[in-house]
Amino acid sequence: MPSIGAFLVYGLYLASFLGSAAAAPLPGGDPSETSRRSCNVIKRKEWRTLSDSQKKSYIKAVKCIQAKPAIAKATIPNSVSRFDDFQGVHIQQTFLIHFVGHFLAWHRYYVATYEKALREECGYQGAQPYWDWTLDADNFLESPLWDPDTGFGGNGATIPPDGSPIAVPGATGGGCVTNGPFVDMRLHIGPGASLNATSRCLRRGFSPFIAQTFSNTAKVNNALAQPDFGWFNKVVEGETNFQNAGIHGGGHFSVGGEAGDLFSSPGEPVFYLHHANLDRVYWKWQSMNLPARLSDISGPVTMMGPITGPNVTLSFPIDLGPLAPRVTVKDLMDIEGSKKGTGVLCYTYEE
Ligand SMILES: [Cu+2]
What we know:
Pfam families: Tyrosinase (PF00264). Keywords: Copper, Metal-binding, Signal. Residues 1-23 form the signal peptide. There is one protein chain. Helix 1 packs across helix 4, helix 3 (52-65) packs across helix 5 (103-122) and helix 9 runs antiparallel to helix 10 (271-287). The protein has twelve helices and six strands. It is mainly α. Strands 1-6 form a two-stranded parallel ribbon. It has a single domain, classed as di-copper center containing domain from catechol oxidase (Orthogonal Bundle). A hairpin with an 8-residue loop joins strand 4 and strand 5 (327-328). Copper (II) ion binds next to helix 4.
């Protein structure tokens, strides 16, 4: 992970870049009006509760979105596919959307937009599945997610450790995935902040240690016990180190490889299942006191911004660039907000 100094330099660069991009007209008109008319709440389920044919339909849809031509070439010239479009927007905005008050709202909208693309552009009938990593915390390598036939394939090939001081503790593998549906997948941008054209394999470096340490039920319960959004957000996202990675970092660093890359992690298809689960934990926390928590938002506007600095509010804009219309945090507070006329989302979670 780059130093804080590098974070800041990139942040300034990206802020100016996005500032100009944001002036472009946004597609779709009033998003709340559009989705309100067609809101049929879909239910997100845990990966292992899906039937084999449902699992295969999901994987098929991911491969379909990876084969659909990019629409975001104006701002991400080396994006080849719609899958890359999503990854590219995350790379561009990395310093604007992590360790900020709108971290969870942004990723909530991002996953819902990906889910929408799978359904509307690739004929996927289901909802975005989630990965409850607490079920695998003590037996990470045996997770049904890694099944080569009915899952996402397994670990990356073993490569010698590069001696990096930021190596993930307990990491294994590290090379290209060797089986499953993404064995021939090519990534066209990344790693890190790079938007240059590339052709890379999907890398994984499983760390059962990270899973056991950060992806367990006690960690989730600790997050759920937080009294307000500010604390909840802090506990979920943790810190930029392996001593206190939070449940967010747990999902990323236990899979490792591409998933462990703060910028280009959406190049790992499992990213969306991990973030759906984080969103589920967020919704669970909100549901413990909905009247208060549908409007509880706080946290810095800028990455790791000072606690004395400005805070994110309900009117804070959430911008997915070319992926979706711009909305506000308020539009994203309720996952069934479209049905209720209070937002743009239209899904729920099966426990
Ligand atoms: Cu992210």
